[in-house]
Amino acid sequence: MSIARHRPHDGSAGWLPPWRDLRARLRRRAALATGLTLAVTPLAACGSDAFLGDDGGGGGETTLTWYINPDPTTEANLGQSGIAQRCSEESDEYDIEVELLPQSASEQRIQLARRLAAEDNTIDLMSLDPVFVAEFADAGFLAPIPADMQTEFSEGVLQGAIEGATWNDELVAAPLWANTQVLWFRKSMAEDAGFTYTSTPAEPGVLLNQDGQPVTWDDIIDAASDQGGFVGVQANKYEGYVVWINALIEGAGGDIVSDTEAGADASIDIGSEAGVEAAQVIQKLASSPAAEADLSVSNEGTVLGPFADPGGFMVNWTFAYANYNTPEFKDTFDDMGWARYPATVAGEVSAPPIGGIDLGIGAYSDDPELAMEAAACITSVDNQIQYAIDTGNMPASEEAYAAPELTKAFPPDLLALYRDSIDTAGPRPPTPYWSSIVLGVLNQWHPADSVDPQSTPQDSASFIQSALAGKSLV
Description:
The chain is of the alpha+beta class. 39% of the residues lie in helices and 14% in strands. Strands 1, 2, 3, 6, 9, 12, 13, 14 and 15 form a 9-stranded mixed β-sheet that branches. Helix 1 crosses helix 14, helix 9 crosses helix 10 and helix 18 runs antiparallel to helix 19. It starts with 21 loop residues before the first helix and ends in a 6-residue tail after the last helix. Residues 1-59 have low confidence and may be disordered.
Protein backbone atom coordinates (compact mmCIF):
# COMPACT_ATOMS: atom_id res chain seq x y z
CA MET A 1 0.00 0.00 0.00
CA SER A 2 1.51 3.31 -1.02
CA ILE A 3 1.52 6.27 1.28
CA ALA A 4 -0.80 9.17 0.59
CA ARG A 5 1.42 12.07 -0.43
CA HIS A 6 0.75 15.68 0.50
CA ARG A 7 -0.56 17.55 -2.55
CA PRO A 8 -1.56 21.16 -3.17
CA HIS A 9 -5.20 21.75 -2.32
CA ASP A 10 -5.45 24.45 -4.97
CA GLY A 11 -3.23 22.87 -7.60
CA SER A 12 -0.65 25.66 -7.36
CA ALA A 13 2.80 24.69 -8.57
CA GLY A 14 4.46 26.65 -5.79
CA TRP A 15 3.03 24.55 -2.95
CA LEU A 16 5.52 22.57 -0.86
CA PRO A 17 5.04 19.76 1.69
CA PRO A 18 5.09 21.00 5.30
CA TRP A 19 8.60 19.78 6.00
CA ARG A 20 9.97 21.64 2.96
CA ASP A 21 8.62 24.92 4.33
CA LEU A 22 10.87 24.48 7.35
CA ARG A 23 14.06 25.19 5.45
CA ALA A 24 13.72 28.97 5.23
CA ARG A 25 12.71 29.23 8.88
CA LEU A 26 15.58 27.01 9.97
CA ARG A 27 18.14 29.09 8.08
CA ARG A 28 16.92 32.36 9.64
CA ARG A 29 17.14 31.13 13.20
CA ALA A 30 19.87 28.48 12.99
CA ALA A 31 22.82 30.46 14.34
CA LEU A 32 20.93 31.77 17.35
CA ALA A 33 18.64 28.87 18.14
CA THR A 34 20.91 25.87 17.75
CA GLY A 35 24.27 27.27 18.76
CA LEU A 36 25.82 25.34 15.88
CA THR A 37 27.82 26.45 12.88
CA LEU A 38 25.68 25.18 10.03
CA ALA A 39 27.06 24.02 6.71
CA VAL A 40 25.26 25.62 3.78
CA THR A 41 27.38 24.28 0.95
CA PRO A 42 25.57 21.89 -1.39
CA LEU A 43 28.07 19.06 -0.87
CA ALA A 44 28.33 16.97 2.26
CA ALA A 45 31.80 16.52 3.74
CA CYS A 46 33.74 13.45 4.89
CA GLY A 47 31.95 10.19 4.24
CA SER A 48 28.87 11.57 2.44
CA ASP A 49 28.80 11.44 -1.32
CA ALA A 50 27.07 14.14 -3.34
CA PHE A 51 24.52 12.98 -5.88
CA LEU A 52 24.60 14.46 -9.35
CA GLY A 53 21.43 15.85 -10.82
CA ASP A 54 19.61 14.20 -13.72
CA ASP A 55 21.38 16.51 -16.17
CA GLY A 56 24.77 15.24 -14.97
CA GLY A 57 25.69 18.64 -13.56
CA GLY A 58 27.63 19.17 -10.36
CA GLY A 59 24.97 20.90 -8.21
CA GLY A 60 23.12 17.85 -6.99
CA GLU A 61 21.60 16.77 -3.70
CA THR A 62 23.43 16.46 -0.39
CA THR A 63 23.63 12.97 1.04
CA LEU A 64 22.42 12.52 4.61
CA THR A 65 23.23 9.29 6.42
CA TRP A 66 20.57 7.82 8.70
CA TYR A 67 21.63 5.02 11.06
CA ILE A 68 18.59 2.78 11.52
CA ASN A 69 17.80 -0.13 13.80
CA PRO A 70 16.68 -3.35 12.05
CA ASP A 71 13.02 -3.42 11.00
CA PRO A 72 10.77 -6.50 10.96
CA THR A 73 10.89 -6.18 7.16
CA THR A 74 14.08 -6.06 5.11
CA GLU A 75 12.52 -5.01 1.79
CA ALA A 76 14.16 -1.86 0.48
CA ASN A 77 10.92 0.04 -0.08
CA LEU A 78 9.40 -0.77 3.32
CA GLY A 79 10.03 0.29 6.91
CA GLN A 80 12.63 2.94 7.61
CA SER A 81 14.29 2.31 4.25
CA GLY A 82 10.97 3.09 2.60
CA ILE A 83 10.67 6.33 4.57
CA ALA A 84 14.18 7.34 3.48
CA GLN A 85 13.27 6.63 -0.13
CA ARG A 86 10.05 8.64 -0.01
CA CYS A 87 11.61 11.63 1.73
CA SER A 88 14.50 11.62 -0.75
CA GLU A 89 12.04 11.62 -3.66
CA GLU A 90 10.11 14.52 -2.13
CA SER A 91 13.21 16.66 -1.67
CA ASP A 92 15.43 18.36 -4.23
CA GLU A 93 17.86 19.34 -1.44
CA TYR A 94 18.94 16.02 0.09
CA ASP A 95 19.11 12.30 -0.44
CA ILE A 96 18.95 9.96 2.55
CA GLU A 97 21.12 6.86 2.72
CA VAL A 98 20.54 4.32 5.49
CA GLU A 99 23.14 2.40 7.46
CA LEU A 100 21.96 -0.63 9.44
CA LEU A 101 22.78 -0.86 13.14
CA PRO A 102 23.13 -4.18 15.03
CA GLN A 103 20.05 -6.13 16.13
CA SER A 104 20.59 -5.60 19.86
CA ALA A 105 19.59 -2.21 21.30
CA SER A 106 22.62 -2.32 23.61
CA GLU A 107 24.95 -2.93 20.66
CA GLN A 108 23.25 -0.09 18.76
CA ARG A 109 24.00 2.20 21.70
CA ILE A 110 27.64 1.13 21.85
CA GLN A 111 28.27 1.62 18.15
CA LEU A 112 26.66 5.05 18.02
CA ALA A 113 28.20 6.24 21.29
CA ARG A 114 31.71 5.27 20.23
CA ARG A 115 31.42 7.04 16.93
CA LEU A 116 29.84 10.16 18.39
CA ALA A 117 32.44 10.29 21.17
CA ALA A 118 34.94 10.53 18.31
CA GLU A 119 32.86 13.40 16.84
CA ASP A 120 31.89 11.39 13.75
CA ASN A 121 30.43 13.88 11.27
CA THR A 122 28.86 11.19 9.07
CA ILE A 123 26.03 10.51 11.54
CA ASP A 124 23.37 12.94 10.38
CA LEU A 125 20.34 11.07 11.73
CA MET A 126 20.03 8.13 14.10
CA SER A 127 17.24 5.88 15.30
CA LEU A 128 17.46 5.74 19.10
CA ASP A 129 15.73 3.52 21.62
CA PRO A 130 14.03 6.04 23.97
CA VAL A 131 15.94 4.63 26.92
CA PHE A 132 19.21 5.96 25.49
CA VAL A 133 17.94 9.44 24.58
CA ALA A 134 18.80 10.99 27.96
CA GLU A 135 22.32 9.55 27.89
CA PHE A 136 23.03 10.83 24.38
CA ALA A 137 21.55 14.25 25.10
CA ASP A 138 23.46 14.62 28.35
CA ALA A 139 26.70 13.69 26.58
CA GLY A 140 26.13 16.36 23.92
CA PHE A 141 25.73 13.81 21.13
CA LEU A 142 22.45 15.28 19.86
CA ALA A 143 22.08 18.57 18.03
CA PRO A 144 19.77 20.93 19.97
CA ILE A 145 16.26 21.24 18.57
CA PRO A 146 15.04 24.86 18.30
CA ALA A 147 12.09 25.72 20.54
CA ASP A 148 9.55 26.05 17.74
CA MET A 149 10.72 22.76 16.21
CA GLN A 150 10.24 21.11 19.59
CA THR A 151 6.61 22.17 19.25
CA GLU A 152 6.54 20.92 15.66
CA PHE A 153 7.84 17.49 16.64
CA SER A 154 5.62 17.13 19.74
CA GLU A 155 2.29 18.51 18.51
CA GLY A 156 -0.33 15.75 18.53
CA VAL A 157 2.14 13.16 19.86
CA LEU A 158 1.08 10.74 22.59
CA GLN A 159 2.40 11.73 26.02
CA GLY A 160 4.30 8.51 26.61
CA ALA A 161 6.25 9.01 23.40
CA ILE A 162 7.04 12.63 24.27
CA GLU A 163 8.42 11.65 27.68
CA GLY A 164 10.79 9.18 26.06
CA ALA A 165 12.20 11.89 23.78
CA THR A 166 12.62 14.51 26.52
CA TRP A 167 15.58 15.39 28.72
CA ASN A 168 15.75 18.28 31.20
CA ASP A 169 12.27 19.39 30.16
CA GLU A 170 13.26 19.82 26.50
CA LEU A 171 12.46 17.64 23.52
CA VAL A 172 15.85 16.42 22.32
CA ALA A 173 14.71 13.87 19.71
CA ALA A 174 11.73 13.52 17.39
CA PRO A 175 9.32 10.65 18.19
CA LEU A 176 8.99 8.36 15.16
CA TRP A 177 7.09 5.32 16.41
CA ALA A 178 6.02 4.06 19.78
CA ASN A 179 5.67 0.58 21.21
CA THR A 180 3.98 -0.85 24.25
CA GLN A 181 3.31 -4.17 25.88
CA VAL A 182 -0.19 -5.52 26.43
CA LEU A 183 -1.55 -8.67 28.02
CA TRP A 184 -2.17 -11.29 25.34
CA PHE A 185 -4.42 -14.10 26.56
CA ARG A 186 -6.15 -17.23 25.33
CA LYS A 187 -9.86 -16.50 25.45
CA SER A 188 -10.73 -20.07 26.41
CA MET A 189 -8.48 -19.99 29.48
CA ALA A 190 -9.69 -16.55 30.52
CA GLU A 191 -13.30 -17.70 30.26
CA ASP A 192 -12.62 -20.86 32.27
CA ALA A 193 -10.99 -18.69 34.96
CA GLY A 194 -14.13 -16.59 35.22
CA PHE A 195 -12.57 -13.52 33.59
CA THR A 196 -14.60 -11.19 31.36
CA TYR A 197 -13.47 -8.77 28.69
CA THR A 198 -14.76 -5.25 28.22
CA SER A 199 -13.70 -2.32 26.07
CA THR A 200 -15.01 1.24 26.11
CA PRO A 201 -13.62 4.50 24.68
CA ALA A 202 -12.65 5.54 28.20
CA GLU A 203 -11.10 2.19 29.16
CA PRO A 204 -10.19 0.14 26.08
CA GLY A 205 -9.22 -3.50 26.36
CA VAL A 206 -9.79 -4.44 30.00
CA LEU A 207 -9.79 -8.03 31.31
CA LEU A 208 -11.79 -8.26 34.53
CA ASN A 209 -11.38 -10.87 37.26
CA GLN A 210 -14.19 -12.63 39.11
CA ASP A 211 -14.69 -9.54 41.30
CA GLY A 212 -15.14 -7.27 38.30
CA GLN A 213 -11.73 -5.60 38.75
CA PRO A 214 -8.86 -5.41 36.23
CA VAL A 215 -6.79 -8.56 36.46
CA THR A 216 -3.61 -8.58 38.50
CA TRP A 217 -0.46 -10.62 38.09
CA ASP A 218 -1.70 -12.82 40.92
CA ASP A 219 -4.92 -13.45 38.98
CA ILE A 220 -3.26 -14.59 35.76
CA ILE A 221 -0.59 -16.68 37.53
CA ASP A 222 -3.30 -18.51 39.46
CA ALA A 223 -5.46 -18.97 36.35
CA ALA A 224 -2.62 -20.40 34.27
CA SER A 225 -1.44 -22.64 37.11
CA ASP A 226 -4.93 -24.08 37.61
CA GLN A 227 -5.37 -24.87 33.91
CA GLY A 228 -1.94 -26.18 32.97
CA GLY A 229 -1.01 -23.05 31.05
CA PHE A 230 1.92 -20.65 31.23
CA VAL A 231 2.52 -16.94 31.84
CA GLY A 232 5.08 -15.69 29.33
CA VAL A 233 7.45 -12.91 30.43
CA GLN A 234 10.92 -11.63 29.54
CA ALA A 235 13.34 -12.72 32.29
CA ASN A 236 16.63 -13.40 30.54
CA LYS A 237 19.69 -11.53 31.83
CA TYR A 238 19.17 -8.54 29.56
CA GLU A 239 17.45 -5.17 29.52
CA GLY A 240 14.08 -6.73 28.67
CA TYR A 241 13.94 -8.26 32.16
CA VAL A 242 14.50 -4.81 33.69
CA VAL A 243 11.61 -3.53 31.52
CA TRP A 244 9.37 -6.05 33.32
CA ILE A 245 10.77 -5.14 36.75
CA ASN A 246 10.31 -1.43 36.03
CA ALA A 247 6.69 -1.94 34.93
CA LEU A 248 5.94 -3.92 38.09
CA ILE A 249 7.48 -1.24 40.32
CA GLU A 250 5.76 1.64 38.55
CA GLY A 251 2.49 -0.29 38.67
CA ALA A 252 2.92 -0.35 42.46
CA GLY A 253 3.40 3.42 42.53
CA GLY A 254 7.20 3.51 42.75
CA ASP A 255 10.34 3.95 40.66
CA ILE A 256 13.65 2.20 40.24
CA VAL A 257 15.30 5.62 40.48
CA SER A 258 13.97 9.16 40.71
CA ASP A 259 15.38 12.69 40.62
CA THR A 260 17.37 11.53 37.61
CA GLU A 261 18.48 15.07 36.72
CA ALA A 262 20.95 14.65 39.60
CA GLY A 263 22.87 12.12 37.50
CA ALA A 264 24.95 9.78 39.66
CA ASP A 265 23.34 11.35 42.73
CA ALA A 266 19.82 10.28 41.71
CA SER A 267 17.59 8.77 44.37
CA ILE A 268 17.70 4.94 44.26
CA ASP A 269 14.15 3.83 45.06
CA ILE A 270 14.11 0.18 44.04
CA GLY A 271 14.31 -0.88 47.69
CA SER A 272 10.97 0.76 48.52
CA GLU A 273 7.66 -1.00 49.20
CA ALA A 274 6.94 -0.85 45.47
CA GLY A 275 10.13 -2.82 44.86
CA VAL A 276 8.97 -5.40 47.40
CA GLU A 277 5.60 -5.68 45.60
CA ALA A 278 7.40 -6.27 42.30
CA ALA A 279 9.64 -8.92 43.86
CA GLN A 280 6.60 -10.73 45.26
CA VAL A 281 5.11 -11.03 41.76
CA ILE A 282 8.36 -12.38 40.33
CA GLN A 283 8.81 -14.83 43.19
CA LYS A 284 5.24 -16.07 42.81
CA LEU A 285 5.56 -16.70 39.09
CA ALA A 286 9.01 -18.28 39.34
CA SER A 287 7.80 -20.77 41.98
CA SER A 288 4.49 -21.58 40.28
CA PRO A 289 3.47 -24.19 37.68
CA ALA A 290 2.80 -21.26 35.33
CA ALA A 291 6.53 -20.49 35.00
CA GLU A 292 7.96 -21.64 31.68
CA ALA A 293 10.86 -24.08 31.93
CA ASP A 294 13.21 -21.60 30.27
CA LEU A 295 12.19 -18.67 32.50
CA SER A 296 15.77 -17.59 33.23
CA VAL A 297 16.52 -17.19 29.50
CA SER A 298 13.07 -16.18 28.29
CA ASN A 299 12.65 -13.27 25.90
CA GLU A 300 10.14 -11.77 23.48
CA GLY A 301 10.60 -14.67 21.06
CA THR A 302 10.83 -17.68 23.36
CA VAL A 303 7.41 -17.00 24.91
CA LEU A 304 5.61 -17.23 21.56
CA GLY A 305 5.65 -21.03 21.32
CA PRO A 306 4.17 -21.84 24.76
CA PHE A 307 1.47 -19.23 24.20
CA ALA A 308 0.39 -21.19 21.13
CA ASP A 309 0.61 -24.57 22.88
CA PRO A 310 -0.54 -25.20 25.58
CA GLY A 311 -1.60 -21.55 25.87
CA GLY A 312 -2.09 -19.16 28.72
CA PHE A 313 -1.15 -15.52 29.15
CA MET A 314 1.74 -13.44 27.85
CA VAL A 315 3.03 -9.88 28.11
CA ASN A 316 4.68 -8.82 24.87
CA TRP A 317 5.06 -6.01 22.38
CA THR A 318 2.69 -5.11 19.56
CA PHE A 319 4.37 -7.43 17.03
CA ALA A 320 2.61 -10.40 18.65
CA TYR A 321 -0.61 -9.68 16.76
CA ALA A 322 0.99 -10.08 13.35
CA ASN A 323 3.00 -13.09 14.56
CA TYR A 324 -0.15 -15.15 15.11
CA ASN A 325 -2.23 -13.65 12.31
CA THR A 326 -1.02 -16.31 9.88
CA PRO A 327 -2.48 -19.58 8.54
CA GLU A 328 0.06 -21.52 10.63
CA PHE A 329 -1.36 -20.13 13.88
CA LYS A 330 -5.02 -19.83 12.88
CA ASP A 331 -6.30 -21.77 15.91
CA THR A 332 -4.21 -19.68 18.28
CA PHE A 333 -5.21 -16.43 16.61
CA ASP A 334 -8.92 -17.27 16.75
CA ASP A 335 -8.57 -17.88 20.51
CA MET A 336 -6.34 -14.86 21.20
CA GLY A 337 -7.45 -11.79 23.13
CA TRP A 338 -5.71 -8.63 24.29
CA ALA A 339 -6.05 -6.40 27.31
CA ARG A 340 -4.26 -3.75 29.32
CA TYR A 341 -1.08 -4.78 31.12
CA PRO A 342 -1.81 -6.63 34.40
CA ALA A 343 -1.95 -4.66 37.65
CA THR A 344 0.86 -5.16 40.14
CA VAL A 345 -1.40 -4.29 43.07
CA ALA A 346 -5.17 -4.85 43.14
CA GLY A 347 -7.00 -1.56 42.74
CA GLU A 348 -3.98 0.28 41.28
CA VAL A 349 -3.73 1.18 37.58
CA SER A 350 -0.98 -0.72 35.78
CA ALA A 351 1.97 0.99 34.10
CA PRO A 352 2.56 -0.65 30.70
CA PRO A 353 6.12 -0.57 29.34
CA ILE A 354 6.85 1.79 26.48
CA GLY A 355 9.44 1.52 23.76
CA GLY A 356 9.76 2.57 20.16
CA ILE A 357 12.24 4.70 18.26
CA ASP A 358 13.08 8.39 18.41
CA LEU A 359 14.98 10.24 15.73
CA GLY A 360 18.13 12.01 16.89
CA ILE A 361 20.14 14.53 14.87
CA GLY A 362 23.89 14.09 15.18
CA ALA A 363 25.66 16.91 16.99
CA TYR A 364 28.63 16.68 14.62
CA SER A 365 26.69 16.46 11.36
CA ASP A 366 27.99 18.74 8.62
CA ASP A 367 24.38 19.41 7.61
CA PRO A 368 22.27 19.75 10.78
CA GLU A 369 19.91 22.14 9.01
CA LEU A 370 19.10 19.63 6.28
CA ALA A 371 19.00 16.83 8.84
CA MET A 372 16.39 18.78 10.82
CA GLU A 373 14.35 19.22 7.64
CA ALA A 374 14.68 15.52 6.85
CA ALA A 375 13.61 14.62 10.40
CA ALA A 376 10.38 16.57 9.89
CA CYS A 377 9.67 14.50 6.77
CA ILE A 378 10.66 11.19 8.35
CA THR A 379 8.39 11.69 11.37
CA SER A 380 5.42 13.06 9.44
CA VAL A 381 2.02 11.53 10.23
CA ASP A 382 1.80 9.97 6.77
CA ASN A 383 5.14 8.23 7.18
CA GLN A 384 4.21 7.00 10.66
CA ILE A 385 1.02 5.50 9.22
CA GLN A 386 2.83 3.77 6.38
CA TYR A 387 5.52 2.53 8.74
CA ALA A 388 2.85 0.93 10.94
CA ILE A 389 1.36 -0.79 7.89
CA ASP A 390 4.82 -2.02 6.84
CA THR A 391 6.03 -3.25 10.21
CA GLY A 392 3.22 -3.39 12.78
CA ASN A 393 5.11 -0.85 14.93
CA MET A 394 2.66 1.75 16.16
CA PRO A 395 2.71 5.51 15.47
CA ALA A 396 3.74 8.08 18.06
CA SER A 397 1.15 10.47 16.60
CA GLU A 398 -2.35 10.27 18.05
CA GLU A 399 -3.87 11.43 14.75
CA ALA A 400 -2.45 8.40 12.96
CA TYR A 401 -4.63 5.97 14.91
CA ALA A 402 -7.73 7.20 13.09
CA ALA A 403 -6.21 6.62 9.64
CA PRO A 404 -8.31 4.30 7.45
CA GLU A 405 -5.21 2.26 6.59
CA LEU A 406 -4.71 1.38 10.26
CA THR A 407 -8.35 0.80 11.11
CA LYS A 408 -8.51 -1.71 8.26
CA ALA A 409 -5.34 -3.48 9.38
CA PHE A 410 -6.04 -3.75 13.12
CA PRO A 411 -9.17 -4.30 15.23
CA PRO A 412 -10.51 -0.99 16.61
CA ASP A 413 -10.31 -2.10 20.25
CA LEU A 414 -6.69 -3.20 19.79
CA LEU A 415 -5.73 0.14 18.24
CA ALA A 416 -7.49 1.94 21.09
CA LEU A 417 -5.64 -0.25 23.60
CA TYR A 418 -2.28 0.51 21.97
CA ARG A 419 -2.99 4.24 21.95
CA ASP A 420 -4.17 4.28 25.58
CA SER A 421 -1.27 2.12 26.80
CA ILE A 422 1.30 4.36 25.08
CA ASP A 423 -0.35 7.51 26.42
CA THR A 424 -0.46 6.23 30.02
CA ALA A 425 2.71 4.12 29.99
CA GLY A 426 5.31 3.87 32.72
CA PRO A 427 8.56 4.81 30.97
CA ARG A 428 11.95 3.62 32.10
CA PRO A 429 13.71 6.35 34.10
CA PRO A 430 15.29 8.99 31.84
CA THR A 431 18.86 8.96 33.11
CA PRO A 432 22.32 9.06 31.51
CA TYR A 433 23.23 6.17 33.82
CA TRP A 434 20.52 3.77 32.68
CA SER A 435 22.97 1.21 31.28
CA SER A 436 24.79 1.01 34.63
CA ILE A 437 21.48 0.81 36.50
CA VAL A 438 20.35 -2.07 34.28
CA LEU A 439 23.51 -4.01 35.04
CA GLY A 440 23.08 -3.28 38.73
CA VAL A 441 19.50 -4.56 38.73
CA LEU A 442 20.42 -7.71 36.80
CA ASN A 443 23.26 -8.39 39.22
CA GLN A 444 20.75 -8.82 42.05
CA TRP A 445 17.47 -9.87 40.39
CA HIS A 446 18.65 -12.58 38.01
CA PRO A 447 17.73 -15.40 37.83
CA ALA A 448 14.07 -14.82 38.63
CA ASP A 449 13.85 -17.86 40.91
CA SER A 450 16.49 -16.30 43.19
CA VAL A 451 14.40 -13.18 43.91
CA ASP A 452 13.50 -12.76 47.58
CA PRO A 453 11.13 -9.90 48.44
CA GLN A 454 12.73 -9.59 51.88
CA SER A 455 16.22 -8.92 50.55
CA THR A 456 16.53 -8.49 46.78
CA PRO A 457 15.03 -4.97 46.42
CA GLN A 458 17.12 -3.46 49.22
CA ASP A 459 20.27 -5.32 48.24
CA SER A 460 19.91 -4.06 44.68
CA ALA A 461 19.39 -0.49 45.91
CA SER A 462 22.62 -0.66 47.89
CA PHE A 463 24.49 -2.24 44.99
CA ILE A 464 23.29 0.36 42.44
CA GLN A 465 24.13 3.20 44.82
CA SER A 466 27.62 1.81 45.27
CA ALA A 467 28.06 1.31 41.52
CA LEU A 468 27.00 4.88 40.68
CA ALA A 469 29.43 6.15 43.34
CA GLY A 470 32.22 4.21 41.62
CA LYS A 471 32.69 1.83 44.55
CA SER A 472 31.40 -1.33 42.83
CA LEU A 473 31.84 -2.74 39.35
CA VAL A 474 28.76 -3.68 37.31
